[in-house]
């Protein structure tokens, strides 16, 4: 089958949606399909992302004036790198220990001093202002360039099926341009177009676009059952829908975590992922005071200023690892005592990192105000513990886990193998997606696999 994927978020972007489609594209190629990807040229490289086979055809296009200028700057910096700014300028030893970022692969983290420099802040401010004028944000400046390239690819590639990877909503607008061509279109909704965080100025347009998706898409995929129910309530049951969760790799590339990252005399908690106003860990930070032998490490590109301040105030219990290459983050997940997952306010959203955690084979501590899909899954699988997201409840749970860790029984009573969660592996998810593709494309079969590749 010949597949054309429209994906703004694709390597070198390290976003969850980029990882989702990098893995799925890789697995679809392994299943024998010819995959083409229409994406943007964002410049530079991101270490540690999954490698794609040469047989995948990636068509990069100009992202727009602002993002294009940033891509040019990234490429320039790749050719003319600056030496890293390591932390002799940090104010105190405590501050140097409080804020760290990864060094070269296989070595321990080295301290870097936040905040981001003035050039980064100016760039973010300019993009934010420009995003006020573009739907749904600054990524919308790709719309015209992407549409022109899409017309060319539809004629030259002649795909059997087209897929839009949302977000951003721009990819759905491009997917709608396929209607009338006779080629079926699948919309992959990572999140609803009209979400609680959608700016007020774009809410009406988001609703119109989401409604158009359900009128014209041959099939819609969502990441969890609650999102499916929400879309059914909004748009009825005429459009076929399938749950295609985020996932984990059954055979991740080898990458050893540094031996000295975690202290065997502590209870080592690890959180990898982004933090938002709708996904908060304030109660967990306060609960760390329950015992000085409990330490939380956070791997995130950026964190709120309040967390920076907390790290400076308690450097022995809160470490900020900064950005970690994907493979290094996976390696650390496999070494931590407990992996922390924090529920979103919106129950129709499940952080993609939860599925990575399932593949790591370590216990998960899930923090949520109410019972949600993740809590139910953890309890059914005996994969870890569910705790109310308030200081008292978390502190009590952490004391119990510390004692269990010190007595060597932290994993007792849990089932941590990957066999029982294989349905969430990228390998199995690609097979599910293949069934959807065959259905909408009328049973087109994959091209014969290359014997030399096996």
CATH T-level topology of the largest domain: Rossmann fold
Shape, principal axes of CA atoms: globular
CATH class of the largest domain: Alpha Beta
Query: Which class best fits the helix and strand makeup?
Result: alpha/beta
Low-confidence stretches: 85-115, 450-454
Number of domain units: 2
Distance between the termini: 19 Å
Helix content: 25-40%
What is the radius of gyration computed over CA atoms, rounded to a whole number of angstroms?
A: 22 Å
SSE order: EHEEHHEEHHEHEHEHEEHEHEHEHEHEHH
Largest sheet: 7 strands, parallel
Which CATH architecture of the largest domain? Answer: 3-Layer(aba) Sandwich
Tell me the strand percentage band: 5-15%
Structure notes:
The protein is of the alpha/beta class and 454 residues long. It folds into two domains: 2-70 and 125-247 and 425-453, 3-Layer(aba) Sandwich (Rossmann fold); 267-420, Glycogen Phosphorylase B (Rossmann fold, 3-Layer(aba) Sandwich). The protein contains 15 helices and 15 strands. The strands form three sheets. The chain has a seven-stranded parallel sheet, sandwiched between helices. Helix 8 links the parallel strand 8 (219-222) and strand 9 (241-243). The protein is globular, with a radius of gyration of 22 Å. The two termini are 19 Å apart. Mean pLDDT is 86; it is low at 85-115 and 450-454.
């Amino acid at each position: 089958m010949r597949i054309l994927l429209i994906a703004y978020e694709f390597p070198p972007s390290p976003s969850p949606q980029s990882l989702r489609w990098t893995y799925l594209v890789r697995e679809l190629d392994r299943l024998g399909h010819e995959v083409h990807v229409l994406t943007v040229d964002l410049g530079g490289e991101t270490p540690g992302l999954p490698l794609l086979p040469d047989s995948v055809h990636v068509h990069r296009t100009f992202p727009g004036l602002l993002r294009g200028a940033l891509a040019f700057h990234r490429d320039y910096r790749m050719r003319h790198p600056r030496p890293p700014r390591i932390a002799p300028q940090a104010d105190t030893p405590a501050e140097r220990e409080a804020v760290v970022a990864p060094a070269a692969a296989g070595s321990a983290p080295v301290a870097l001093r936040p905040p981001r420099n003035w050039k980064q802040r100016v760039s973010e401010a300019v993009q934010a202002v420009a995003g006020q004028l573009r739907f749904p944000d600054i990524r919308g400046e790709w719309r015209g360039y992407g549409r022109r390239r899409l017309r060319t690819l539809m004629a030259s590639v002649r795909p059997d099926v087209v897929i839009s990877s949302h977000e951003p909503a721009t990819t759905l607008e491009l997917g709608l341009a396929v209607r009338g061509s006779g080629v079926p279109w699948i919309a992959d909704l990572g999140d609803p177009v009209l979400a609680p965080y959608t700016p007020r100025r774009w809410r009406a347009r988001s609703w119109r676009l989401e409604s158009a998706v359900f009128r014209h898409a041959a099939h819609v995929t969502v990441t969890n059952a609650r999102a499916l129910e929400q879309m059914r309530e909004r748009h009825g049951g005429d459009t076929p829908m399938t749950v295609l969760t985020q996932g984990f790799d059954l055979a991740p590339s080898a990458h050893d975590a540094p031996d000295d990252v975690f202290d065997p005399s502590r209870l080592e908690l690890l959180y990898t992922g982004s933090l938002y106003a709708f996904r908060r860990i304030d109660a967990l930070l306060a609960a760390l005071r329950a015992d000085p032998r409990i330490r939380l490490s956070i791997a995130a590109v950026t964190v709120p200023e309040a967390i920076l301040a907390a790290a400076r105030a308690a450097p022995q219990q809160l470490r900020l690892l900064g950005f970690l290459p994907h493979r290094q983050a996976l390696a650390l997940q496999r070494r931590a005592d407990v992996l922390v997952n924090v529920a979103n306010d919106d129950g129709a959203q499940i952080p993609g990192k939860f599925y990575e955690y399932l593949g790591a084979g370590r216990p998960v501590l899930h923090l949520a105000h109410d019972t949600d899909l993740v809590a139910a899954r953890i309890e059914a699988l005996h994969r870890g513990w569910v705790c109310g997201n308030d200081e008292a409840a978390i502190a009590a749970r952490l004391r119990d886990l510390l004692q269990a860790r010190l007595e060597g029984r932290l994993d007792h009573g849990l089932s941590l193998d990957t066999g029982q969660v294989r349905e969430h592996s990228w390998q199995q998810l690609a097979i599910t997606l293949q069934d959807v593709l065959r259905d909408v494309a009328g049973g087109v079969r994959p091209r014969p696999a290359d014997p030399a590749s096996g």
